[in-house]
Amino acid sequence: MPERLLTPFAYITVLVVLVLLTFLTVGLSFVSGSPMMHAVAGQAIATVKASLVVLFFMHVLRSAAQTKVVIAVTIFWLVAVLLGLTLSDYLTRGMIPMAPGH
Amino acid sequence: MNPSTVANQSESLAHTVFERQRLEEQYENLDQQHHAASLGMWVFLATEVMFFGALFLSVAVYRYLYTEAFERASGRLNWQIGGLNTLVLLVSSLTMVLAVHYAQLGSRKRIILFLGLTALLGACFLSLKGLEYYIDYEEKLVPGFQFDSNEWVTREGLRPDQVPHVKLFLFLYWVMTGIHGLHVTIGIGVVLVMLMLAWKGRFSQAYYAPIDVTALYWHFVDIVWIFLLPTLYLLGTHRWGGE
Predict the structure, then answer these.
(1) Partner residue facing B94 (CB), from A11, A86, A91
(2) Please, which residues bridge with residue B147 across strands?
(3) Considering only CB atoms, which chain B residues are within 8 Å of A67?
(4) Which of B208, B177, B233, B194 shows the shortest CA–CA distance to B31?
(5) Do B90 and A22 touch (CB under 8 A)?
(6) Is B83 close to A67, i.e. CB distance below 8 A?
(7) In chain B, which residues have their Cβ closer than 8 Å to the Cβ of A6?
(8) What pLDDT is attached to residue B241?
(9) Average pLDDT over residues A9-26
(10) Domain residue spans in chain B?
C-alpha cells in the first residue's frame, strides 16, 4: 500500500524527538518538586512519546477509520473509565472532612 | 454481476500466482485481508492496554496513598539501566518500522537486515534487564526472597509500618517489568519467525501483512516501557551523585 509510505528520514526524525523527550523526562526527575508535579510531568511526556509512536511508527496517521475507532474506544475505556472513575474516588477522599475510611 | 464485483475480481486477478496463494478465500483481495489482520491486532492490543492499565492504575493509587515509601523505594531502582533500556527499545522501534518500510518496497535483503537488528536490540534490552535484576538482587530489593526490612528503617529513615509499602512498590516493579520482559521475549520470537519467512522469500510488496502486524505488537511493547520508565523509575527522588 504505497499511500502509507513515509521516508526513512521522517522515521529517524521521530526517533530523535523520542530520544530528546527521554532525556527531558529523566532530567526532570532530578528537579525538586511536589510528587504530583513529577507524576503529571512524567506521564505527560510519556503520553506525547506514545502518541508519536502510535501516529508515525504504527501508521495510525494514515490508517483506516475502523482502526481509529478501535484506538479511540481503547483510550476512552482506559482513561475515562478505568483510570478516571477509580482515581476520582481515591484522589478526592481526603477532600471530605471527617469522612470515615482514611 | 454488478460492476464493483467485476472490479474486485479483476483486482484479485491482478495479483501474481504467488500472491493469490497467500489470499485466504473469505477475502476479495490482499488489501482487504491486510486490513482485517491489522484491525484484529489492534483489538488484541486494546485488551493488552486494559491488562497493563490495571497495573498502572495500582501504582497510581498506591503512590498517592503511600507517597513517601514509594519515592524511597523508586529511588533505589537503577534509573541508568532503565533509561538506557528506553533508548534501546526506541531504536528497536525505528528498525522495526524500517523493516515494514522495506517490506512495502519489496526489498527482501533490507527486511532481513532490519528484522535482525530489531531482534538483536530486543535481546540487548533483555540482557540489560537481566543485569539490572541481578543488581536489584544484590541490593536486597526482592521482597520475600532477598529483602532487609531493617535497612529501610535505619538507612532510609522510614517508619516500620511503612516497610510493607516499600514491599508493595517492589512487588509491582517485579510484576510489571517481568510481564513486560515476557512480552519482549515473545516479540523477539515472532520477529525471528518473520525473519525466517522473509529469508524463504514468502513476502512481496502486496503481501507483507504478517510483518506489519508483528510491528504493531512490537511498537505496543515499546509504548508500555515508555510509560514504565516515569511510573517506576522517575518519581523525582534522584539527586546527582546521591543514592
Answers:
(1) A11
(2) B141
(3) 38-39, 42
(4) B208
(5) yes
(6) no
(7) 101
(8) 41
(9) 96
(10) 31-233
H/E stretch holding B198 reads: helix B163-199
Task: Give the angle B225-B230-B231 at the CA atoms, nearest 5°.
Answer: 85
The grid cell for B175 is 510484576
Closest residue in chain A to residue B92, using alpha carbons only: A15
Residues B3-60 have pLDDT tens digits of: 555 555 555 555 677 777 888 889 988 889 999 999 999 999 999 999 999 999 999 9
Cell of residue B165, nine digits: 509499602
CA of A100, closest CA in chain B: separation in Å? 15
Cα A23 from Cα A1, distance rounded (Å): 35
- Which ipTM did the prediction report? 0.91
Question: Residues 9 to 48 of B: which have CB under 8 A from any A CB?
Answer: 31, 34-35, 38-39, 42-43, 45-46
Answer positive or negative: Cα dihedral of B106, B41, A19, B136: negative
**Whole-angstrom distance, CA of residue A18 vs CA of residue A52:** 8
In whole angstroms, how far apart are CA B104 and each of A53, B117, B195? 19, 18, 15
B63 touches chain A (CB under 8 A): yes
The structural domains of chain A, with segments of one domain joined by +, span 2-63, 71-102
Closest partner residue to B230 (CB to CB) among A4, A43, A63 is A43
For residues B111, A19, B238 and B127, what is the CA-based torsion angle, rounded to 10 degrees? 10
In B102-131, the residues whose Cβ lies within 8 Å of chain A are: 104-105
Q: What per-residue confidence (pLDDT) applies to A4?
A: 57
Which stretch of DSSP H or E encloses residue B142? Answer: strand B141-142
Q: Which pTM was predicted?
A: 0.90
For the domain spanning B31-233, the CATH number is 1.20.120.80
Cell matching residue B28: 476479495
pLDDT digits (tens, 9 = 90+) for A68-95: 999 999 999 999 999 999 999 998 887 8
